[in-house]
Amino acid sequence: MPTRSYLLKSVGLVTIITAVGKVLGFGRESIIAAYFGASSTADVFFVASLIPTILFTALGSGLQAGVIPLYLEKKAENPLKADDFISLLGSFFMLVAAVMTMACVIFTKPIVMLVAPGFSDAELELTESLTRIMLPSLLFFTLSYMATGVLNANKRFILPALTSTAQNTVIILATVMFASPLGVEGLAWGFVLGAASQFLIQYPSLKRYNIRPIISFLAHGRQIVQTLYTFYPIIIAALAIQLNSVVDRIIATSLETGSVSALNYANRLLWLPLSIVLTPLITVLYPSIVERALISYNSFLGLTLRGVKSLVFLAIPFMIVMLISGNSLITLAFQRGAFDASATETTNTAFFFYSAALPFFALRDYLMNAFYALKKTKVAMYSCLFAVFLNVLLSWLLSRHLGVGGIAIASGISMLLQSLYLFCFLWHKGDRRTDAASFRDALSEVGKLSIIGTSIYGFVLWLHPIALTFPIIVELVFVSVLVFGLYLALSMVFKVSGLQALSRFKSK
Which residues are listed as membrane-spanning (predicted)? Predict the structure, then answer.
């Protein structure tokens, strides 16, 4: 079991590394925005990148989330057999990835027509071309996710955290070097090279384990089938999560030009605090949650609820800053070159409503991992399918009246209800008499933080017109310092337990 100091050190290192990667990610998006703006060409690229992204997320999430519980369980029995198992599993998923890649290359045209029904003939043709260029990235992403699962299971978080830095650096270089002579195709090739870099940077650390290709699948047919039975709910859940993005972009293709790009840029900005601050905590806690689940449900639940309180505590001040200064953040991040004030306004419409759901994006991912640790994969799958259905319905209805803002509202509502469903199921599964105090404490904490956050939002929003008279950097610093300062002070005054929860992740 990891000690408190080890967990805190790991979270700190992963956070710093992730921050560097996300700063580069912003540089990547900013450069793409400068070259292509919120234009039809940018819309085409982001839709084309959806297809390999959906496929690799389905396979990759299955590997990364599913490998850790199975690997740790087998490693406790026999470390050598655990390495053999992962070698077999990784080889099988690579075969699946290769077959899927070839199938998508053959059927690219109908797939593109399905995901971009609002595109013109010229846009569809370009989308088809870019998709074929980017499809081989599925193979590299599958390798990368397998490596990440193995390394994280062995409590090696540094190189997996560097994958974002490697990918963003490669895409930035490719955009600068090839966007002018090759146009958007240069960006597509950068996407493929960036995918390859994610695996290559992890390979040196992966070599110390006996992970190797295994092609004798028939000899291990029963083991593969049993494992796939465990994995298929995780894969379906990952596909469902990606379908939310697909639905958003499909509906956005029927709105004004630039709507797809606006959603993409708003989503990227939303994931900055998620990736830098919240995801590292989720990543580092996951192996420990799996270990607790193997011991007892009460031990698992204690750590899981501390994680819930910590995530909500960390998410609220970021959410407030983003709600108040969203327009300034978008202007600073993207408004240059082909990305003009009109694109900023459209992007901010989506960003505002995405920001309001920030805590639920984090909680959804965290609670999904908790159910994977319990091997309750079907519950996670059903929650994702419900969220997709709700998102499809609400996105279609709300976008008719609110444009891209309606699509963002639909995503937020689906995240909220999915998180509540998963949280309630945890309570229902345990001993409700024994665990009632823990759940009441968690709910009380969320309520207390909501009141504090609402009060700070109202006060800082009232002062915001004064901040708008400052240069944009000064405004953002002023709002951020004020929000975080007040939040920390009020949390201490009202004895918010999220502060203590952050320092209590230790073995019992």
Answer: 6-24, 54-73, 85-113, 133-151, 227-247, 269-290, 311-330, 350-367, 379-398, 404-428, 449-470, 476-498
Amino acid at 310: S
- Residue 187 DSSP symbol: H
pLDDT score of 380 more than 50: yes
Residue 278 DSSP one-character state: I
Q: Which domain holds residue 307?
A: 4-501
- Beta-strand ranges (E) seen in 23-71 are none
pLDDT at 292 over 60: yes
The pLDDT assigned to 151 comes to 82
Separation between Cα atoms, residue 504 and residue 4, nearest integer Å:
7
343, 258 in Cβ contact below 8 A?
A: yes
CA distance 426 to 439: 9
Higher model confidence: residue 395 or residue 65? 395
pLDDT at 394: 92
Closest C-alpha to 408, from 236, 240, 269, 238: 269
SS3 3: coil
d(CA 217, CA 31): 45
In one-letter notation, the amino acid at residue 191 is F
In whole angstroms, what is the distance from residue 92 CA to residue 113 CA?
30
Residue 5 burial by CB count (10 A; 0-12/13-18/19+): exposed, middle or buried? Answer: exposed
> Distance between alpha carbon 482 and the CA centroid of its chain, in Å?
28
Domain membership flag for residue 507: no
**Alpha-carbon span 452 to 468, nearest angstrom:** 24
pTM over 0.85: no
* pLDDT value of position 507: 42
506: in domain: no
Q: In whole angstroms, give the CA distance from residue 494 to residue 473.
A: 31
Q: How many CB atoms lie within 10 A of CB 458?
A: 10
In a domain, 11, yes or no: yes
C-alpha to C-alpha distance for 221 and 237, rounded to whole angstroms? 24
The answer to whether residue 426 scores a pLDDT higher than 70 is yes
The amino acid sitting at 450 is S
Q: How far apart are CA 160 and CA 14, in angstroms?
A: 9
> Which of these ranges, 36-50, 113-127, 352-366, 465-479, has the smallest mean pLDDT?
36-50
* Residue at 508 is within a domain: no
